[in-house]
Structure formats: structure tokens, C-alpha cells
């Protein structure tokens, strides 16, 4: 029992009942016997075990409850020291407390504040609660101890403490004066105090000082209105840690009615994270409401659940007018099917970004809008709805339309200018061609690509292709100047290397900084089956022969035009009649992310596959563009492509050499007449012989021998060429009335269908043609 008041006694057990006068003294020796019996009856009727001891601690009287509680017979207790009922380890303290009580006689719990234990006869211990009362008798002071077994209450207290420690929140239990009586481990962890630093202290130790007055007021108010509820409802509550830091808390109060009076249980929860989350939510809510974009939320069924101020301004509907209604109300009839498609995509967890469409306002106006939608999910990740940000892009769409129209207008002007500068190559009898020009689809569009076909007469054709580096009108202007110069130079009949040398000077004279030009010029001599070519840094010219595939023409490597100080070289290649030449600019094979050598190989392979037979050139040109530029709308450089198929060989051709002597004139006339007779062209014989006489006479008189006479015919014309070793080019000139010479070339000019003079490495060639 921990501590029973009294001292050890050496009197024999049962003395109280063996000495009736001693027992009767409990009431008074003068008291009647009936009074003693009533006292004994009350003692036996007491609900607690009653043990009466004298001032020496000897047991004088016990009741039946004492026998039941401690397991002794009454005779085994009377006359024995009360310490028989106390565990031995507490004997010393028990005697000290009993003596102390004898000196301070009052009705009170014994061992207040201590854990008291009783000792049964079988040696088991149990918790007890003892109430002491002094009894003044003629035999001196007696002490009455009411002993109660509190095992059940202690077990209940232990269960309560266990529940208290298991609570997820900090639990603080205070009495009606606000003094802390009990806390759990969570309280220690939350506030930073050890348990011992809190017990017995005012609960205000856990409250910031500026709230002490209000806290006392609220606590007293709760004591007068006891119910389970939050404390300080509607107020911002803060806790105070031992280190002086404050934090937001939420407190739930519960009243506890106990034998010691009212206790208040406070469950304290740190809501710092929740407050921070609420602040972020409030910030986001503020941002959503202040957004210039319309923001709305909806269920997966399409019912609107949120509508911000910008949505109201955009569509004209008040929130009350749209909440709960289907979002299709915002779509024009022809766009309502897309609502179902978008909801389906959202239900699958897909985010839809920058979906541009039309929407309908309350007033019936159509708006161009940009919509971004994303699915909203429940805690388990299930898609439960969607949010949408809607931006009015009507102004942007109008601006884009205006810019597109302006761009197309400028592009049309630029392309018209470029096509005017590029010119339209003439159709050349006997030479089949197909050409393609594709302006760049990005940027300025116009560029510096050009090509040209130049009829040189006598069955010869000049083919020119070039590319001025750069983009825009400046490159197109340079291209126009060079094309005009190249065309004029080619008409003089000069050789490719000479033309390239002259163009190099032109580029230098244009004085365009950092301007380079690639160019390729070739002359096709169909009667000889020969192509003479000079390239100024241009991409290889390909030749495709049916059955033999495609290959690059062997060409000396020369620097681009504009470098200056370059001596250009040319080469001559014999190719069979019917072969096709392919010339192109770098936009065809120089594409982003690809290697130019790989693209050139691809072009050669494509051409070889096309020319297993003799394909239609127009279809072949389209096929090449599709193969090399599959995305026709994404190339960033202009593209030029030219296919030219060589004409068939002449029906007949003869050549002879003549010395530079007067006798060569009749000899040449005879040679020509014989040829015309054999070719059944006698209708042209007189004119042909007359013109040959004039040309041969000039060669004999003014040139160096030997002279070469070449005659050929095609299905449409007769060509006569006279070559000599003089570089001096004859010029038609007016002749005086009495002059004996000077009329030969004027006669040739008058009678021939076409005529000309071209320089050669050995000298020059003068030629004329007559139609058949």
C-alpha cells in the first residue's frame, strides 16, 4: 500500500479483541454498549477496507473488507504492525510518513503525490488509495485508514496514457486553472520541451505572450461552455516553441470530468504545411482570377464547373449563366463535334496544347481562340475533369492574314521581277528541254539562280546556268545583269572559257562585297556529237544515256566568278545523240541536315533509274524534284533544274580541206554541188554555191590556210562552214559605188537564213544556213 500512517508495534495479534476495554475506548468508556455496536456496524458496512491503528502503528481494528482485500483473517492482523500490509521496500518511508501525520493531524490522503501499494498475504502487490482520519480516544490517538484498491483505475489510467501517447497530435491536458497536468511525446516533439518542463506550468507557456490575455479569456469561456469544439474558432492560432519560434496551430478541445474536477484536453496540430499550401492556393486563385486569359474548368461530361472573370469578359456570360451547362454552348454548330473529340483525348490523360479554333460569344460573335487543355486528376490519379486556358487570337489572326496578303503581294512582285530578269529561254528546234524553277519557301523567296538557252546557229546551242550566292533582291539584281551579259557574250560565238573569263571581269566590276557566283557554260555541237564545257565552281553537270545510266561530265575545276585572277579552262566531251544533259543549282542537293556528296549520289542514282529508257523530260523533271525535295514547302533556297536532250545526228555531213589559193574557190563550189546532188538538194544549189563563193573568197584573200569546208544537212536546214587560221573576224561594211570589194558579207547576210562567225582555237569559222 505504499504508505500507511502509523509505527511498527510489538503487541500481539488480536489484542484489541482480547482486551474489551481497549476496543470500547474507540467510542468512550462512558459510552453505552449500543453505541459501540453501532460503530462496529458502520465499520463493517464501509465500502472500503478500514484499518484502525494506534500511535505505535499496531493494528487495533479491521473490517471484513480488509480481510477480503488483503487475504488475511482478522485474527492474523490484530495486534500486528500495520507494515504487514506494506511492501518491505517501503517500510522505512512508511514509518516516516506515519510519524509525520501523527504530528499534523487532519483528514487527508496519505502519501499524497506518491504511488502507494498494498501487500497481500500471498505476497502480491496492488495499487491503493488511502484516506486517513485521526480518532481521539481516552487511550490516546488512533488513526483510521480507509484503503481502496485502485487497480482498475490504474489500468484505465494506463490505457488512457497509452492512447494519449499513440495520438497523432500533441495532447495537452490542463486543469480548470490552466495548469498542465499531462502531455504526450508529440507535445515534446512539437514544442521542443521535455515533459518535466511542462507539467505543473501554466498552459500559456505554449502560447505567444501577445496572446496571453485573449487565451485566458477563451479558456475561461470554454470552461463555462463545455463541449467538444475547436478553440478560438475563426481566429489565427499560434504555438510557441521553447526556442521562441512561432508556428500556426489548430486546436480541438474536449472536457474531461474527473473526480479531481474538470480537466481540458487539447489536441494541438501543426498546420504550417497546410497554411503554406493554402497561401499558395490563394495566390494561384488570385492569379487565375486576375489572368487576362479566360480560364474555365469542366467535368469529363463537358459540364462547366469554374469560370473566371476573363472568361466572363471574353464570352459575355456571367458565371451563374454557364455553371453546370455544357461547354458546347460556346462552340458554333459546325465546331461542336470537336468538343467530343477533345473531351475524349482529355479522358485518356492527353494534354492538348495551342488548339486553334472558333468560339461563339453570348452576342453571337465568332472569335478566333487558342485553347490549351489539360486533364485534372483525383488523388488516385484518375482523370475527373479538365481545365482550359482560352486566349482570344482574333487580332493576331487578322494581323497574320494581313501579313500573309502583304507577303504574297511582295513575293509576287519579287518573283515577277526575278522571272523578268531570268527571261524565258527560246524553244530551239531539235533540242528537247524541260526546266523547273522553285523559289525558296522561306525568307525572301527570290534568289540568284538563272539558266539560259542560246541558239548559236550552225546546229550549235549554248546552255548556261548560274547561281549568285545570297538571297533577296540584291542577288536577283546581280543575276539579271550577269544573265544579260552572258547572253550577249555567248551570241558572239566565243568559247566557254572566254565567256567565263569575261563574266569574271563583270562580277569584279559590279563591286558587290563578298559576292561569289557559280556558273557553267557549255556549247552543244549536235553534228559532231560534242559538248564543250567550262565551269566556274558550279556543281557537276550530269549526262544520262538510255541504257548506260548517268555520270558527271569531266570538267576542269575552276574557281567561282568574282575571285579574280583566274585563268579558266574548258574541256570537250563527245556524247552520243539522244543523251540528256542535266544542269542544276545547289538548292536541289544542299539541304539542311544532309551531306552534299550523299545527295549528289542520290541524284545520280535517281537519274540512272529514270533513263533506263528515254523518258519524257517533263515527267523526269518532276520525278527528280520529288525525290530530292520530298517536302516542297520547306526548302530554304531557290532551285533551278534543266534537262536538255541532244538532237539526233545530222542526216548527212561531208568535210574537205582546201589551200588558201584562188583555185580553192571553184573547187569548193564543185564539192558543195556534188554533195547537194547526192542529197537531192539541188533546189538550193545556186544560192548555196553563190554564198560559198563569197565566204571562200574572203578566206582565200584575207585569211591563212589551210581552209576547212564542212557541209551538213538535217531534216530542216543546210549548214555550210568555212574555217581558217586567221583570228581576224570579218565585219560587214558598206561598199563604195566604185569599190571592187566589200559586198560579199552583205550578200551572205541578204540571202542566207542565218549566218555568223565564231572564233576557234585555230582561228575562226564563218557559217551560213539555208532552210530546206
TrEMBL record:
Domain PAC intervals: 112-162, 233-283, 353-405
Pfam family, any one: PAS_4
Residues covered by the PAS domain: 35-88, 156-209, 280-350
Keywords: Hydrolase
Superkingdom classification of source: Bacteria
Alphabetized NCBIfam families for the sequence: sensory_box
Record protein name field: PAS domain S-box protein
Entry annotated with the keyword Endoplasmic reticulum: no
Source organism per UniProt: Streptomyces kaempferi
